[in-house]
Specification:
The complex is a heterodimer of chains A (about 100) and B (about 475). Chain A has about 100 residues and is mostly helical. In chain A, about 35% of the residues lie in helices and about 5% in strands. The termini of chain A are far apart. Classes of the chains: A mainly alpha (about 100), B alpha/beta (about 475).
């Protein structure tokens, strides 16, 4: 086993995902199969190979910099329009800090 | 008539006043809505926006102004590409009510060029899947065979183009999501060079791999649409600076003497009829005077594990934003912030998204980073190096897009690993960021389309299109 059910629960916690017991069981089976396949990478010698984070960049390093010119922002109302809960120009979430 | 129009036919019709843009849009909308019950290709239509765009074209024409290269062309946009004021679901329950406050750059450029957006097309949830069965809004049916999948994740855009309910369409490709459905539905699908088209407004799945790409029924239409949407955009710092050639004017040209590489790794484990059609395609290329060479891309074997590490790692990070605060859906009566996050995400994401978020979180978690993510980034460099070496000896590479043609709905949905493995011939080009496309290459004995993949070096879309165009013409494969 590459990944156990307790490990699946730990990773789900890291990912902020609530999983049912059934999902945990299924996930550990499926992830196990996928991770087993992924293990084949180990046979490949990659010593001396530079990791590739970006596949293509075709300009000077500073080319993406732009002049610091003011632009109209999206605006508060438009930004909040898709919020499930908002008031007074803010997103509303369950209380985080006890008073 | 609407179902087989090309962009140039729309232009000719407008010029000859056979129809106005408004008339064509009305007809196209009515046709698309009526046909949609068969395939479920569209998730929503935007008639008001379409009529407004058509009106702008008619106004321009009446004033003798240039209405743009896409004037009056009815088209569809994959529902992972945002459209201001028009619902964009990403195929997810979580975004059922999401109305974007801005347009993607590709969308804005299409409308500036006179294009008429009819609606938004179905796809696998957050573009994760190879069959379109992961959509929260039901699968798309392949218009060629309604009991079969259209491929994925851009299944709706492929199906709409094949069905003729859009002249052209936009999709997105992360590991094959334009090319594979194009091959399953018998249309042209293009994944341009990474960065060639701005990703601004493409809802992020795996940022280092995501591409916006066109679907069309002819190579010429795909080339024209790419020309419109390509080019530097300061809203996407990874968009390429290289000037955009006029692909359409470069389309005709001799392909005689072009060196074509056949990578032996791409012909292992291919279904026999798919292999036969590709072999016929290679014969046709020979007839056109191309020089065929056997080549090897040895890292191919490792491309699937490499791809599924990188794309899930990036996805787990990109999808963190759907937490119940900003994007329309919040679940449960949670009393704490943390429970609210967990419940919203647990009930909102479908099975495939959860699997990928979990795999991505796992490979990035403490103690595993070097063994998985860093290793995959090194393997990615080897995959890219393979292509680099190959393109010093050949002008283009030809291969299958998928090991098999469109399969039946439900046939493969029970085995995620099997589905992942079927992406083997398409993820390599994505990892290397090179232009690649699927061009129709005949059908199986059951009438199922087979797509041939053409890959070229970075920014050599002109060479890719020229070969595809010559091939399409010689084989009589242009979809009409």
């Amino acid at each position: 086993m590459k990944i156990t059910e307790p490990e699946v629960r730990y990773v789900a916690d890291l990912a902020n995902l609530k999983l049912t017991d059934d999902e945990v069981a299924r996930m550990s089976r499926e992830l196990d199969e996928i991770l087993t396949h992924i293990e084949t990478l180990k046979e490949l010698d990659t010593s001396g190979v530079e990791p590739m984070a970006q596949v293509l960049y075709d300009a000077e390093e500073t080319a993406t910099l732009r002049p610091d010119v003011e632009r109209a922002p999206l605006g508060n109302a438009a930004a909040l329009a898709n919020a499930p809960l908002a008031s007074n120009g803010y997103y509303k979430v369950p209380r985080v800090i006890e008073r | 008539m609407i179902a087989s129009l090309t962009i140039s036919e729309v232009q000719a019709g407008l010029k000859a006043k056979t129809f106005s843009a408004t008339e064509l849009t009305q007809k196209a909308l009515a046709f698309a809505e009526a046909e949609n019950v068969k395939t479920n290709a569209y998730l929503s239509f935007c008639p008001e926006r379409a009529m407004a765009a058509a009106d702008r074209v008619d106004q321009a024409l009446s004033q003798g102004a240039d209405p743009g290269p896409l004037a009056g062309v009815p088209l569809a946009i994959k529902d992972v590409i945002v459209t201001k004021g028009v619902r964009t679901t990403c195929g997810s329950r979580l975004l059922e009510k999401y109305i974007p406050p801005y347009d993607a750059t590709a969308v804005a450029r299409i409308e500036q060029a006179g294009g008429v957006i009819l609606g938004k097309t179905n796809c696998d949830e957050f573009a994760m899947g190879s069959s379109n069965e992961n959509s929260a809004y039901g699968p798309v049916r392949n218009p060629v065979a309604l009991d079969r999948v259209p491929g994925g994740s851009s299944g709706g855009s492929a199906a709409a183009t094949a069905q003729g309910t859009a002249v052209v369409a936009l999709g997105s490709d992360t590991g094959g999501s334009v090319r594979q459905p194009a091959s399953f539905c018998g249309v042209v699908g293009v994944t341009p060079t990474y960065g060639r088209v701005s990703r601004y407004g493409l809802v992020a799945f795996a940022s280092s791999l995501d591409h916006v790409g066109p679907f069309a029924r002819t190579v010429a239409d795909a080339a024209l649409l790419l020309r419109v949407i390509a080019g530097r955009d300061e809203m996407d710092s990874t968009s390429a600076f290289a000037p955009v050639p006029d692909y359409l004017s470069l389309l005709d040209g001799n392909v005689c003497g072009k060196k074509i590489g056949l990578p032996k790794e791409y012909f292992e484990g291919v279904a026999s009829e798919t292999a036969d059609r590709i072999a016929d395609g290679v014969k046709l290329l020979k007839k056109l005077g191309c020089e065929i060479r056997d080549i090897s891309l040895p890292a191919t074997k490792y491309a699937i594990p490499c791809y599924y590490i990188i794309c899930t790692a990036e996805a787990s990070s990109n999808l963190a934003r759907y937490d119940g605060v900003r994007y329309t859906t919040r679940s449960g009566e949670s009393s704490t912030l943390s429970d609210m996050y967990r419940e919203t995400r647990g009930s909102g994401f479908g099975a495939e998204c959860k699997r990928r978020i979990m795999l991505g979180t796992y490979v990035l978690s403490a103690g595993y980073y070097d063994a998985y993510y860093l290793k995959a980034q090194k393997v990615r460099a080897l995959v890219a190096e393979d292509f680099h070496r190959a393109f010093s000896a050949v002008d283009a590479i030809v291969a299958p897009v998928s090991p098999f043609p469109a399969f039946k709905l439900g046939e493969k949905s029970g085995d995620p690993m099997e589905m992942y493995l079927s992406d083997i011939y398409s993820v390599t080009g994505s990892l290397a960021g090179i232009p690649c496309m699927s061009v129709p290459c005949g059908t199986t004995s059951q009438g199922l389309p087979v797509g041939m993949q053409i890959l070229t070096k970075h920014f050599d879309e002109p060479g890719m299109f020229r070969l595809a165009h010559a091939f399409e013409k010689a084989g009589g494969f242009a979809g009409h």
